[in-house]
Design brief:
303 residues, mainly alpha
Amino acid sequence: MVVGAFYFIYDKTIHNPQLNFQDFINQLEYSIAESYKTIFTLLGFTIFNWLFEILKWQKLVSIVKHITFYNSLQQSLGSLTASLFTPNRIGEYGAKAIYYKKGNRRKIMLLNLLGNMSQMSVTLTLGAIGLLYIFINFKLEIDVYRFKKLGYLVAIVLLIVLGIGLKGFKKIRGFYIDKIILFVKKMSLKSHLTIVLFSFLRYLIFSHQFYFLLIIFEVNLDYLTCMSLITAMYFLASIVPSLALLDWLVKGSVAIWIFSLVSVNELIIVTITLLMWILNFGIPAIIGSYFVLNFKLPSIENE
């Protein structure tokens, strides 16, 4: 797993089909490499991004068992490394659950689901606002006929899902919906608000990290327009199923289309999305590989 993680991080950095590695290095040398302040600022964004993710997981797990900050860091980064190869990081559920005794593993998986749902809710809410701003302020060429066909398809799928639901479709990723609702109700309002707050702070950090990179690469856009494009990009990228390893590719493709509305150079956008992936997935996954290599199943005494 660790060897595979290192290989894929290396491969996506060196042999990127969307961006020649030498062009990537030239961009970094021109805009970033000569400024230690810029480098430390970018790393600071990454550290605080994962700091709030670690605190969020620590808070979630406290409902089942109190763990230290270091335990939360170990589980968060270790599960990231383990989930790089799985669609939508679904492997993260099993990776985190295995740190706990069998009787608590389903609760841990459910808590992880709630944490991810919280982060997704923030992404979708702010992204919808960003998309609304784009539709109001930009003239988008939309094929109405294709959207009608898509609308019909979505309507058919919804009818099928609702039909199945009436016949007993009561599960989400193996969890009964009524049990999820009951579990969520048992959590205190303070816990819910804390989780949402951490998710919101994380979103502010990595979205402004992207904005900071745009400034570094001399993209001249006003703040409101820039943040609307970024939030819309994350909205669209988040609803496309993908491997964590290909997260940069999905976001890169979406970002190229989004920022083409304001005529931003594609090379700059691809460079930024790859750099964001390295900072927020690549480096943490490398650190997480240490925890994977040193992983030990919980002993009976610790359970």
